[in-house]
Amino acid sequence: MFRLLIFALFSLNASGQTVVGKWKTIDDTSGEVKSVVEIYERNGKVYGKVVQTFPKPGQNPDPVCSKCDLEDERYNKKIIGMEIMKDLIKSGSEYTNGDILDPENGKVYRCKVWLEGVNLKLRGYWGPFWRTQTWLKAD
Predict the structure, then answer these.
(1) Which of 16, 19, 74, 80 has the most CB atoms around its CB within 10 Å?
(2) Distance CA 21, CA 48 (A)
(3) Is residue 110 within 8 Å of residue 125, measured between CB atoms?
(4) What is the phi-psi region of residue 25: left when phi exceeds 0, alpha when psi lies from -120 to 50, beta otherwise?
């Protein structure tokens, strides 16, 4: 009976973990928090939008995506409130087959996300190359 109770509690804890929520993005070079992205589900897919940025002194506190492709609907739109992650589909313990925009360089990458402990891992692909970031749960 004790083992069953422990298993049930562990299962509840594990199933309570989700990519949905607010996550702090971390600058690869400085290690500083760059933004908060809210990840949410819509029509069975996962999306993410920027809800807060942390500009350095002298930077625009309400920037626009001036480096986005001219054909992209997000070109010259405000980054805060912008949907940067789109169309991820649950595949086992990961969400895959979506894409993510990096507003700093305007590039769109194929991506997937998954949980690793309490952190979110995001891997962006550009052709055969990829880079993985760790995002931290926001309070």
Answers:
(1) 19
(2) 9
(3) yes
(4) beta
User: Which residue segments constitute the domains of the chain, with CATH numbers given?
Assistant: 19-137 (2.40.128.520)
Query: Tokens representing 21?
Result: 């929520």
For the stretch 29-71, pLDDT in tens is 999 999 999 999 999 999 999 999 999 999 999 999 999 999 9
Is residue 112 within 8 Å of residue 124, measured between CB atoms?
A: no
67 in Cβ contact with 93 (< 8 Å):
no
Alpha helices (H) in the chain, listed in sequence order: 2-15
Residues 6+ apart with CB under 8 A from 22: 36, 37, 38, 39, 51, 137, 138
Instruction: Tell me how far apart the 2 most distant CA atoms of the chain are, in Å.
Output: 62
Nearest to 47 by CA among 19, 75, 88, 82: 88
Rounded to an integer, what is the distance from CA 23 to the centroid of its chain? 7
Q: What are phi and psi of 34, to 5 degrees?
A: -100, -40
CA atoms within 13 A on the CB side of 104: 8
User: What is the rounded CA–CA span in Å between residue 67 and residue 72?
Assistant: 10
